[in-house]
Amino acid sequence: MLHRHIALCLSLVCLALTLLSGCGDGESRLPDYDYRIDIEHFEDAIMQNSDKYLLLANKQHPLGATYVPEALCTLDASLTLYGKEIQLEESAALAVEALVRELWACGYTDIVVTSGYRSYGYQQSLFYTYIEKEKSNYPDWSDAEAEAYVLTYSARPGTSEHQTGLCVDLISTNYVSLDESFAQNPAYAWLCANAHYFGFILRYPQGKQAIVGYGYEPWHYRFVGVEAATSMHESGLTLEEYLDKI
């Protein structure tokens, strides 16, 4: 009888702990969204809720030359433009795979990833290439004038969000240029309504340049995890504004 009593008590304790944790059989942590793909493989990634996914990189918060994200993973070539090699932090990589595969399942089969992690050195090369390009376009400009213009659309090395390994640029295989015309793609409306279910936010929305430091980029999405992404989606806050409030 004593053994049976102990076993019963242990069972009740286990049941209570299960109920308190909100992890009973059949219960999911996922948001109320009808995923078309099998989301099980991606669930742990998209539901990440660590402060490291709120890492802020902007003109006022540089990462510096030595920052490299932990556990970089290479995306499956089928997910990238022309099959090029693109890396992301491991949870962000799984989350964007889920996002893109869901887009395809919903009929937006032209959407792929064109950019992810960029090292400090790569961003440095890119930034100064842009400056030379603008000086070529506007021969009368000084180096300072060309740099000031480039800073409206590209980050000085060490301040690029791409260095975090947590963001991607999406593109259409039907129009392989990164510009505001991406907002005319039918997939953009879907992303605005649903990207947060995969832990992503539109990082540089329209009308927020004074806050985020860059103009409207309908193609640039940042992984923060479902909880934070949903809060920002519902409130309309940028990452900077969200971090100011928590």
Tell me about this structure.
39% of the residues lie in helices and 12% in strands. It has 246 residues and is α+β, with helices and mostly antiparallel strands. The strands form 2 sheets. A 4-stranded antiparallel β-sheet has the order 3-4-6-5. A two-stranded antiparallel sheet has the order 1-2. The protein is globular and about 60 Å long.
The share of residues in extended strands comes to 5-15%
Low-confidence stretches: 1-26
Number of strands: 6
Oligomer: single chain
Biggest sheet record: 4 strands, antiparallel
Order of helices and strands: HHEEHEHHEHEHEHH
* Silhouette: globular
Average pLDDT figure: 91
Quick summary:
The chain has 246 residues and is of the alpha+beta class. It contains 9 helices and 6 strands.
